[in-house]
Amino acid sequence: QVQVEESGGGLVQAGGSLRLSCVVSGRALASYSMAWFRQAPGKEREFVANIDGTGVHTVEASSVEGRFTISRDGAKNTAYLQMNSLKPEDTAVYYCTAKPGMKSGQFWAYPYRGRGTQVTVSS
Question: How would residue 44 be classed by pLDDT, with cut points 50, 70 and 90?
Answer without folding.
Answer: very high
